[in-house]
Amino acid sequence: MFAIILMPFSAAFMAEYLCTLFAQPGIVIYCLNALLHNIGWNLLHRSIIKPVPLLKDSTAMKLHKKARRGAKYGFLIYAAIALLA
Question: What is the value of pTM for the model shown?
Answer without folding.
Answer: 0.82
